[in-house]
Predict the structure of Pteridine reductase.
Amino acid sequence: MTNKVFLLTGSAKRLGKASAQLLHSQGARVIIHCNQSRQAADELAQQLNNQRADSAKVVQADITEIANIDALAHSALDCFGQLDGLINNASTFYAKPFGDYDNSDWQSLVGSNMQGPFLLSQALANELKARQGVIINMIDIHAERPLKGHTLYCMAKAALAMMTKSLVLELAPHVRVNGIAPGAILWPEQGMEIEVKQQVMASIPLQRLGNEQDIADAVSFLVRAAYVNGQILAVDGGRSLN
């Protein structure tokens, strides 16, 4: 992993943060992307740079705004002068009844979960080809199994899953593209009713939540697994079997 550089979107907190920390611990330099969590991103970068000088930098952009994508790509490339991997981790998730969606929901949910990853992958494709790089997309087990009250989110993640497979063909043989489909890893930041939590736990064969490290381990594996391409790895404790 030495001399490798990875851009991780939405990596100031939670799953993205854990993945950035693990890749960094293995010798990589990391570019921490954030939107509203600049303080957390700066704190993480400082922590990583204290461990190894000039090994982490921060870029800030709202990836749901199409006009921001090219500038974000250029900023990321300016950080270390190269890019070996893009981890499309940033995601917006919330419930809303069908019939109540509006343009802001479309921008937020589709923009973060499909549109942003697509346009950012396109903007960085030439650099990733030149570096024989990798793209890892954070999908969801609900890309295949709809979740009531989350129609637009599930649609966007389903599109991201298809994008993962399509880019395998578009970017071959220079760039590997894979996805990760987390199950119940962390409860949503906005909270969840006790009854719903109980239903989720009952559906997991391992009878426990996963954690950030489980996703980080999957990212690390897919970054290094040189002959794994076009796969979507479910990290869900077996929940997708139910």
Summary: Strands lie at 5-8, 29-34, 56-60, 85-88, 134-138, 176-182, 232-235. The chain has seven helices and seven strands. The radius of gyration is 17 Å.
